[in-house]
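Worked example

This section walks through a single chain of length 546. The input is the sequence exactly as stored; nothing has been trimmed or padded.
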Amino acid sequence: MKIALGQINPTVGDFSGNAAKIIDFSQRARAAGAGLILFPELSVCGYPPRDLVERPTFVAKNRESVERIAAESKGIAVICGLVTPADAETGKSVMNSAALLQDGKQIFLQSKMLLPTYDVFDEMRNFAPGRSQQLFNFCGNRMALTICEDAWNDKHFWNKRLYGIDPVEELIRAGGNFVLNISASPFWLGKRELRRDMLATIARTDKVPVVMVNQVGGNDSLLFEGSSLVLNREGKIIAQGKSFEEDLVYFDSATLTGEMHEQIEGEEASAYAALVLGTRDYVRKCGFQKVIVGLSGGIDSALTAAIATEAMGPENVLGVGMPGPYSSPGSIEDARALAKNLGIRFELLPISEIYKSYLHTLKDVFAGLKEDVTEENIQARARGSLLMALSNKLNAIVLSTGNKSEIAVGYCTLYGDMAGGLAVISDCPKTLVYRISRYVNSRRPVIPEASLEKPPSAELRADQKDSDTLPPYDVLDAILEDYVEDSHSPAQIAQERGFEPALIQRVVRMVDRAEYKRQQAAPGIKISAKAFGFGRRFPIAAKAEA
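Given that input, the structure is written out below as tokens.
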């Protein structure tokens, strides 16, 4: 039988829109001769719904949408993900389920058994686990239907498993000979390769084809890249969907041959595509059409503006230069040149007089006190106020431009350069920012070379450079990777990297002290295995002894 994978981009809570998309893909697949189409995990309501599942009306709309999908998708069997009542006296009231729809009705239902609670996942908070699972017969096969995490506990792949049961193993033992997995598996750099290798291990070990359809698109901080795939019994990919866009992919369940759609490869290209998609979806799904970016002439704001332009179109991006008393003429020209290269509107709003007004107002209160970081922060906050004023007046969302390195160590100003609705590159270390920027210029040279070459500076005091306060970024990023993403101790980092222990301790203290800033930051787009945000939960008021 010809089977289709409906790799769609749902919006959380948009039941009518999601159902329409599922119906459209189903009808297209039916017209192409497919007898079955699979859609991602919770595709009916969007993933992750989080605490929306606590609303009875939300749960009811899942059922109503499935009834509509079943009625309008006759002639093709449909598997889609939805929230269902748990029907239990104790525990959570809902389950994360997959329904098989055929001939206008639901004929099979399977609920997710493994509910992840690590990193960005908190499914035990919202769902009750499935108590049992069954196979269903289709196109001459005994189908093992699983939901995302249910396929992530194979003992032949993981050195240490998180769960005591393996739903795939149990279904295979019961006679399953064809594994189907509907997923909402978030993207991070390296995730596609890990997922592919894990599923290939299942296919080779159990000598069964493995099918995985994955959600695509951005929902809040999470980005889903799609990359749906089908593997034969030897673990070879025989069909795959595109990455970072919706797709409809076909394969034959008997011959195990299918369509191989091209994917974006390479770390820089993948990161850029992810950030563009995440920005576009966040802005549009939040109800905005236009964005504002403060342009300093530096590399961070340049990359943010380039991403925004590709995501939203140049007509929907406003770049704002806000030179202050310490801004160099070159930075202003670099910002103007970037805007011209991108084709976006550019406005110049100097802040020197505003800054002087602040100092005059505070003169008596500050009498006898030395200038310090306070005066620097006043400049950043003046810029933040201007950007938010434009946001209110123009109904446009401000994109903040801080990178992961700065946010990690608190080299950023609350209510200043941290102001905004989305922190586009907040999961990109500074060294990755440069790499992605060079990739952008390899496609079309838009970022001025001076922005790539000049020493990074906040330009908040005379002759200021980031290196006055921070280690070189290649050193800083290495320490941050070990400490933040891999949870290595300072002693372990010193032993493995060969850096001075005192330097590592200083960086670690900066990271720990900046927790209060990060928890007030705008949400960012997760592209690493461990991003700042709700996937990294540390107390603010704590004494950390490294």
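What to look for: The radius of gyration is 25 Å.
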